[in-house]
Amino acid sequence: MNVKKNGQLLSDTHYQLASLKRMTKQELIEEILGTHDWDYMLENGYVKIDPQACQGCGKPTNPNHPKYERGHFVNRTPADDGWLCGYCGGYECDECEKDIYVDCEVRIKYHGYNYHEECAIKMIQEKRLEECDIEWGMSEWALEEARKEDLE
Question: Is 29 in a helix, a strand, or coil?
Answer without folding.
Answer: helix
